[in-house]
Write a structure and sequence with these properties.
With about 70 residues, the chain is mainly α. The protein is globular, with a radius of gyration of 12 Å. The protein has one domain.
């Protein structure tokens, strides 16, 4: 489970905007090896236009996902 220290993760998972925030945090700040959850490629593709991702990361992900 991703660690988000400033929010209650269980409450975030209940809403669409909360799930997007979790996904953004996982992309922008990384995923720990101890996390059981991985970044879902299908979720990233589905929400690509809605995600607030750091510009350099966005360019890298765009290159990796849509070569």
């Amino acid at each position: 489970m991703p660690v988000i220290w400033d929010y209650d993760i269980n409450e975030l998972k209940k809403t669409k905007s909360g799930r997007l925030l979790i996904l953004e945090r996982m992309i922008n700040y990384g995923v720990y090896e101890s996390d059981k959850e991985k970044i879902s490629l299908s979720e990233v593709k589905k929400n690509w236009e809605k995600l607030n991702i750091e510009p350099s990361r966005r360019a890298l992900f765009k290159l990796l996902i849509w070569r």
